[in-house]
Amino acid sequence: MLAHNVFFDLKDGSDEAASALLAGCERWLKPHEGIVFFACGRRVAEHRRDVNDLAFGVGLHIVFADKAAHDAYQESAPHKRFIAAFKPNWARVRVFDSAWEASGS
Question: Does domain 2-45+55-99 match CATH 3.40.630.30?
Answer without folding.
Answer: no
